[in-house]
Structures are given as C-alpha cells and as structure tokens.
Amino acid sequence: MGIDFLKGSWVAIITPFNKNLRVDFDAWNHLLDLHLAVGTDGIVVCGTTGEGATLELEEKKELMKLARKRLNGQVSLMFGAGSNDTTQACIMASEAASMGADAILSVTPYYNKPPQSGLITHFKSIAEVTELPVVLYNVPGRTGCNLQPETVAELATVKNICGVKEASGNLEQVQQIISLVPEDFSVFSGEDALNLPIMACGAVGTISVTANVAPDLMKHFNDACLKGDWEKAKKIHYKLLPLHKAMFAETNPLPAKAALSEMGLIQENSRPPLCNADLKTHKLVKKIISSFGEMS
C-alpha cells in the first residue's frame, strides 16, 4: 500500500540530554523548530540514533507527543518501535498512534539473530497490532541480523508494511529489494555514504544521521533526486560525503552529538553505555561544519 508521505528527507533525530542525563526538552523543541524551518519531510523519533534503547517508555511518549504538538502536522513523524522482544515491539507499535505517530519504524531484532522465518513472524505480529504504516529497518552491522530481499518482498504483501530503511551497506542487496517489491513500496537509504547510488537505483528517500547536522542540504539533495536533477544531487552528495563519513567516525550518534554541540544546539551528553565523542572527532566535525556556509 503506497503512502505519499513515506518519501523524501527524513532525519533519524538524536535525543538531547542535560548534564543529569534527563531528556533536554528545551533543546528538543529547538531541534524540531530547525527541521520545520528547513522543510525536512519527516522525523524518526526514538530510533536507534535517538538512543531508544536507553529511553524509558514514558520518555518516548513525551518526546512523541511534544513533537506532534510542536510540529502541528507540518512534518511527518515516525516512531522507533523496534525491539528484540516481539511482545515489547508489539506493545510499542500498538501505542504509537496515540502518541501522535504517522508511522512506525521497526528494526530487526538485535542479538537474537532470528532466521528469516522468525523475522517474518516478528514483523507480521507487529503489523497486526497497528493500523499505522510499518517501515522495516535493516541494519545488520548493529543487529547481527540481515533482512534478506526475498523476506522484504514477502513482508511487502502485508497491507500496512509499506517500506524499508535499508542500511546493510550492500548496494546489490538494495537493488534486489527494489526489483522484488511493488512500485509503491517505499525503499529508503539508511546508509548516508551510499545515498546517491541508492536513490539512483530507485529509492524514494533517505532516513539520515547526517540530516541532524545538515538538514537543509539533505532536503535539497532529496528534492533534487526526486525531481531527476542528478547533476545537482551529485554535487550536494559529494559536498556532504566527508560529513557522511564523519558521522560514523565513532559509534552513532556520538559524532552527530559532537557536531550539534559544536554548533551550540545541544549539550553533548549520552546515556551509558554510550559516552561523549573524543577530541579527534570534535576537531573533524568542526572542520567540516565550518565549510558549509557556501552550501546552504
């Protein structure tokens, strides 16, 4: 089932914390305002980049509800409802609509390493408890589990499983998925350094870490791709490529938080077992950011 809003420039938004490691809601609202101002198409709240694994359910609800109120329907919202426990994933998925979500993003179960048949059961169970569009999330480098193209194709037959965020880093796999799923099934690039080739192969948007730091450029990039202006898209992509790489100089979201702190937008704090980025990363992102004035 095709969903019109499942395309374009989406940000896998970070969650800001204060020095006491509680959610910094003032910074949260400021980040939301920034994405609203530049025209970001969608925001993924409480995903893996948002440190969803160390957020309490009540914190997730408050983040979602504040985002819905602040953005007032002007930016689409996707709730990170994934878990390696199918029961817990279903509970979060079933509550996502009441939090204000327009869709949910559900990551493959991490650590368990289920077989493909287990993944099918897992995602079908999630889809059954919500009427919201479900976007699958494949990131084997973080989960130890790869969602195979044939599995995505089978899940795409479920009425409300409407897309996939593909972050395997395997361009051949992305092409296989696009060739197997219906034309109205939304394939998103989840690997910023491969955004250009993935979009050129037929993806309809990006769910990006880089969009935390350069949301305007990511919006321009996606708009150019969707209009078929590949020369413009290529120019922006190669300008952004150093930042794409820098965002993974250390474990995500540490470099993104380092960059946002250098920009004065957040306090650089993450909940254990994560920590702050090292000085080398700070120097790297600061140098890259300083070159962006001419690009906005």
Fold blueprint:
Layout: E1 8-12, H1 25-38, E2 42-45, H2 57-71, E3 76-80, H3 86-99, E4 103-107, H4 116-128, E5 134-138, H5 140-143, H6 149-155, E6 161-166, H7 171-180, E7 186-189, H8 195-200, E8 205-208, H9 215-226, H10 230-246, H11 254-262, H12 279-289
Structural summary, described in words:
The protein is an alpha/beta fold and 296 residues long. It has a single domain (8-228), classed as Alpha-Beta Barrel (TIM Barrel). The chain contains 12 helices and 8 strands. An 8-stranded parallel beta barrel has the order 1-2-3-4-5-6-7-8, surrounded by 5 helices. Strand 7, helix 8 (195-200) and strand 8 (205-208) form a beta-alpha-beta unit. Helix 6 (149-155) packs parallel to helix 7. The longest helix is centred in the last third of the chain and has 17 residues, at 230-246. The protein is globular. The two termini are 35 Å apart. The model has no long low-confidence stretch (mean pLDDT 96).
Key words describing this protein structure:
TIM Barrel; alpha/beta; eight-stranded parallel barrel; 296 residues; 8 strands
Strand content: 5-15%
Instruction: Give the number of DSSP strands.
Output: 8
* Biggest sheet overview: 8 strands, parallel, barrel
- The rounded Rg comes to 18 Å
CATH architecture: Alpha-Beta Barrel
**Helical content band:** 40-55%
SSE series: EHEHEHEHEHHEHEHEHHHH
* Number of DSSP helical runs: 12
Which class best fits the helix and strand makeup? alpha/beta
Rough outline: globular
Total domain units: 1
CATH homologous superfamily placement: Aldolase class I
Which regions have little confidence, pLDDT < 50, spanning 5+ residues?
Answer: none
CATH topology: TIM Barrel
CATH class: Alpha Beta
Spatial strand sequence of the major β-sheet: 1-2-3-4-5-6-7-8
